[in-house]
Amino acid sequence: MLTGAGFVMPVLLNQASCAPTLIGSDRDTGLSLCYVAGDVTSDGAIIWLRADPGSEVVLHYSNDRTFSRFSSAGPFRVDKEADHTVKIELQKLNPGTTYFYYAAVAGKKPGYLASFLTAPAPSDAAKVSFCFSGDTRESYQPFTIMNAVRAQRPDFFLHLGDTIYADFGGQARRLSDFWAKYRANRNDPATQFCFVETSTYVVWDDHEVVDNFFAGNPLVPIGRKAFLDYWPIRRHPDDADRIYRSFRWGRAMELFLLDTRQYRDPGTGTILGKAQKDWLFERLAASSAIFKFVATSVPMAGGGIDRWDGYPAERTELLRFIREKRVTGVIFLSADLHYAAVTSVPKSHGLKDITAGPLAAPLNRVTNGYAPHFDFFLAENFNFAKITVDPALKPAQALVEFIDQDNSVFHTTRIKAV
Hints:
Layout: E1 2-3, H1 26-29, E2 31-38, E3 45-51, E4 56-62, E5 69-77, E6 85-90, E7 98-105, E8 114-117, E9 128-133, H2 145-151, E10 156-160, H3 175-186, H4 189-197, E11 199-203, H5 220-230, E12 245-249, E13 253-257, H6 274-286, E14 291-295, H7 312-324, E15 330-334, E16 340-344, E17 352-355, E18 374-378, E19 383-389, E20 397-404, E21 409-416
Parallel strand pairs: 9-10, 10-11, 13-14, 14-15, 15-17
Antiparallel strand pairs: 1-5, 2-3, 3-6, 4-5, 4-7, 7-8, 9-19, 12-13, 16-17, 16-18, 19-20, 20-21
């Protein structure tokens, strides 16, 4: 822990008088786009940032907004092979604590002040609230709905894929093309302001590469590298390309992030691949959290062959496992189909799939919203879902609120942990 000697106060960006851009001049700070905090645990986090080519960056962080005492990580040199970005891992943090941080490029003014909340310890009965959605197409900027997400003050934000549209506005083919797509989307002011005040978890879907891709597509390794370059994802020590992972948030919940893209094989009927499926089954059965939120970029039902409907045997196997092992509190979260919905998953004995989106993309005008598997359906607005779990409530339940771009709640439901 370092004292505040020599401390220079960073730019404060959450003041009401702030201009609608985060960085007045890259020449002043050497930084660009925005920090993104992600893959937060009870004792750690990953901070992503981008700076001038060749820059060395130090990250200062503290659980005291005044930085009377603070720690520093670095210096780190930005990576030319990752579009001059760097991911900084913070460790030994306190659970359930708000941390403030800012970056400083050598020879430049300090950057802006940002914050995130660490997860509560597994035994902690803290209330948890988060927002999720998907689908942000560049041509729909500005992404003003992110102002509504920010206004909800979530503990974290979950982006369920199609974070870029690499195959629209010109198909990305080279790594530099993919990077440019991420830069264009990340340059959105509302997105930046939202990311300054909360952390993110993220998975990918097809448009990070090309529509409805399979594992053998030659663009997959390029799109995957760009995705991992531009999001604060903690890399697995034994598999650097692995995207599926899980995160515990107190007694309230555990979040399981699935990769429904790079392992799918229609020939063998798998959407997850053996290793991911085995991991999911083991972790679900072992979890003591009240709710287990299984985040799958594609819906569990009603989505055609590119979604779980195209892999019915594996879906049945997953649902049978949940039932036979008596895993309680499972709720599926999905995006991709550009509508808001609560779906009763077929042959699941009452399990629900909550679908949200789009954040900023064409609305779905073709799906039959009166289909019997829908408990609720709306495809009339940009939207996200907010989910709140309070372990103090009996019986245990998750409050689900669908919210539009005007920050208005247009549907609410409660799901019990059965």
